Inverse folding.
């Protein structure tokens, strides 16, 4: 059997931010496809709830994506449990404070958003890549955002760090292009998830107004795209940012 045709039933997938939102939806999709899934999240109660909803099948590991020791220990736990790591869906992310113009942004808030969104993306990649390199196979999807391409007014920290995730993806894709590992990003516009309950309605209205389809994306649409990015069939696309924008993104 060629590595490219490795079935889902023989794959282990790590999903960060797996307790809710897009992360949980992707985990549910990958499990339905047959993969063994490990959910990483800071929210222990959320992890327990997600595990129960997925028939107690996933491994759950409470993890602070911004902390290198926590991330390394979590990945070590997954590897020691299953013996290999084939897929990474990095969905952990935060918006930080929003509806705030640039000169009023709090540096402490910016730093926290950076630590989760961009630093966390690097840390989890650094932890899983050695296992994928050894296996000569891997699929990584990092969660970016259309805000990282275009910038959302009032969301400086989020937009800037998601732009960083896109740059990180493009560089890593080139770094590992000959290893059997593909590394791509997913850049949604507004997807209806719990994270948007934390954003002021005027900010949601501003973002939705920019979408030519005049609606939010759905979790089903996000998981379908992520499942392809993470699939064995995605073997010749790397360092790329897949847009999920309802027509908003034009480049």
């Amino acid at each position: 059997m060629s590595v490219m045709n490795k079935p889902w039933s023989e794959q282990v997938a790590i999903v960060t931010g797996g307790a809710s939102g897009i992360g949980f939806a992707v985990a549910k999709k990958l499990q339905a496809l047959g993969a063994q899934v490990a959910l990483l999240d800071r929210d222990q109660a959320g992890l327990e709830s997600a595990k129960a909803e997925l028939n107690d099948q996933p491994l759950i590991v409470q993890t602070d994506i911004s902390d290198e020791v926590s991330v390394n220990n979590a990945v070590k736990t997954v590897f020691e449990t299953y013996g290999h790591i084939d897929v990474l869906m990095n969905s952990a992310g935060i918006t930080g404070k929003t509806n705030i113009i640039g000169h009023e942004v709090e540096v402490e808030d910016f730093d926290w958003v950076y630590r989760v969104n961009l630093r966390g993306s690097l840390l989890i990649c650094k932890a899983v890549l050695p296992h994928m390199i050894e296996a000569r196979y891997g699929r990584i999807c990092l969660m970016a955002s259309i805000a990282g391409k275009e910038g959302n007014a009032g969301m400086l920290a989020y937009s800037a760090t998601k732009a960083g995730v896109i740059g990180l993806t493009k560089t890593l894709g080139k770094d590992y292009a000959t290893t059997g590992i593909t590394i791509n990003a997913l850049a949604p516009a507004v997807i209806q998830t719990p994270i948007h309950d934390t954003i002021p309605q005027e900010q949601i209205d501003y973002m939705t107004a920019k979408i030519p389809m005049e609606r939010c994306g759905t979790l089903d649409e996000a998981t379908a795209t992520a499942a392809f990015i993470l699939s064995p069939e995605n073997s010749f696309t790397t360092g790329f940012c897949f847009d999920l924008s309802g027509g908003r993104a034009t480049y």
Q: What stands out?
A: The chain has a mean pLDDT of 93.
